[in-house]
Design goal:
homodimer; Carbamate kinase; VC0802-like; 2 domains; eight-stranded mixed beta sheet; four-stranded antiparallel beta sheet
Chain lengths: 418, 418
Amino acid sequence: MSLIVQKFGGTSVGSVERIKNVARRVAKWRAAGHDIVVVPSAMAGETNRLIALAKEIQAQPDPRELDVVASTGEQVTIALLSMALLELGVRARSYSGWQVKILTDSAFTKARITSIDDKAIRGDLKAGTVVIVAGFQGVDAKGNITTLGRGGSDTSAVALAAALKADECHIFTDVDGVYTTDPRIVPDAKRLRTVTFEEMLEMAGAGSKVLQIRSVEFAGKYKVPTRVLSSLTDPMMPVAEEAKAGTLITFEEDPHMAMEKAVISGVAFNRDEAKITVHDVPDRPGIAYAILGPIADANIDVDVIVQNVGHDGMTDMTFTVHRNDYAKAVKILKGQVQSHIKCRDITGDDKIAKVSIVGMGMRSHAGIAAQMFRTLSEEGINIQMISTSEIKITVVIEEKYTELAVRVLHKAFELDQV
Amino acid sequence: MSLIVQKFGGTSVGSVERIKNVARRVAKWRAAGHDIVVVPSAMAGETNRLIALAKEIQAQPDPRELDVVASTGEQVTIALLSMALLELGVRARSYSGWQVKILTDSAFTKARITSIDDKAIRGDLKAGTVVIVAGFQGVDAKGNITTLGRGGSDTSAVALAAALKADECHIFTDVDGVYTTDPRIVPDAKRLRTVTFEEMLEMAGAGSKVLQIRSVEFAGKYKVPTRVLSSLTDPMMPVAEEAKAGTLITFEEDPHMAMEKAVISGVAFNRDEAKITVHDVPDRPGIAYAILGPIADANIDVDVIVQNVGHDGMTDMTFTVHRNDYAKAVKILKGQVQSHIKCRDITGDDKIAKVSIVGMGMRSHAGIAAQMFRTLSEEGINIQMISTSEIKITVVIEEKYTELAVRVLHKAFELDQV
């Protein structure tokens, strides 16, 4: 008998029929003797509807009040799901964030969990009750309702699993696991049976949107074994079978498994960014801050940053931002920064794509980068930027080559053989 | 400078535009120097939508979980209204029932308020903040969300006014006050500038649906001066004018006013009931309980009960129930009661109406009942049942005569001259 936290996303609870299906699936796991905590999101579209309503009143809604509105979406789902379980004859009880309570800081609309009181939940589990906790929401020390930001239900689930020392956290979503790359682009893409926490983190950052990155960090910090599963399968699929389905995110590296494992686990890509180059800036201390400080002050996130060694006391700096922030970032640089740092020019391109290969195996294998670059050059794809981490190599290329690059890299690293 | 609690019903906050209008009205009162607590209902139709959603999952929704769902309607409105005030540059802050906190018993879907913590509200008022409290909802001692049942927002508002010792409670609704009778039936009906608490209670019970009866009881118990006002007037109507508009429900009887006052304040009617007669029951102790006990056990409310003096040890008992409960009540009587009490027959009629005249003045005036009965008989309207209280006389008549009876009584008691 295990304690399992099961999270269901907005699509999985998007209608009355789907909520009933979730209840059947949960009831099946409960009947198999497991203690179950369920964390549902709001019904698909509901959070957007509520935020749109708020924006009709205030173009920039007050963050405290926005959280009061937005948190009602999950409050509805927890009660409906509880009713659906009761209707199946399963003991169930719903808890909102403040009822648990899930204590957060006071950063409305993007709060962070600071602690979870597990007393009430443990009491219910002991009594054989399925506990249903609203995802995405919490309460601050002053009793204000807070929300964790987009995708926060994943974080709620993983944080609950950590607080309860759950045996596993199941993230039910509309895909059946983590793939070597996007199957819509590479039909040969394979589902990974396991992926390490570090790989998952790099793949989430590189644009694989299966799990919210913050929840992966949480899972890693507390070493919560987390399984990504499909909620679109038959809810009555045998428990023994479902327990091995999907993709398990692991933390301890099993040496035996590592030997068997492919060098590369996946190819990720992202077409949401734009690149900006600041040309011929003086190569001296403080210059990076002079360029990126005003960008950060405008709340623009910077992703890849590349600066090469300089010549004649001058260098170029290139970085990427979200495509929505591109015009704003260029305007800031031309308006506030250019004259100040005396650079020659500022250019940019929003028709780029970021393509990454990710894998624990590349740490101990030389030549991975070389193989990646050769594969791309053989197709005539020019590499505009390169950035690397311990287990990831990222290149920025022209957007139109995205699918081609993903396909050839997937094949070159034999991911269709996984 | 006064402390005023203002309640706005579902129609008054039924759209974004209307919420903005409520904000303008509240801002106007605040600008006039008053401390304001606002209690909004859910947006019109929202509570019904939520309950319907719950019933798609469970035909008889679990009461605890139903309250979790239903309470979200008001949670959305408080935040939207708070945003609308902030947008006007008015300090505002929303509170759900548990945040206040409004403590109730644990009777889910029909909870009663046991206490209200006024600390947070007083602090905000002192800082010049408009406080917006969710109507209809509270929290029980164990931290479960509760709701007060239909019309509960009126009760929330009056209870808050009592707890805060407010100078006045404004109930904004879609009518501009309490009328001598329904203006749709008697175009000459006049708005009452004041009505006593006792009259209001009798008129609410007799079917005038301006205020929920429980809120009137609350207002009476704590002597909260309560004004019924229209939310359909120009929100920027001068405060001095609005302060005298509508109908004020009073508690102390002003002797001077009483002298000027008409004997009768209004004619109320109700077509929602059906009558049932149990014929020839033994006229002995315990028989009323034997008849009405099983009805009460089935959760059927009984309204008017009439039992006349008996003959030859036998008597008839007649009572009214809500029309929706008529068939069920007759079935219970024929199935469980008839053979037990050995009555001759059980008959009934669901084509009846209840018409009442209400007025503090009738306590000191003889002949009011006689005048009522003569007025009806002159129109050939047969009186089937009579029931009286200190300040009300109710008759049950054939339903088709309802409008006629209301019109002739309104004229006979000179209510068009008020």
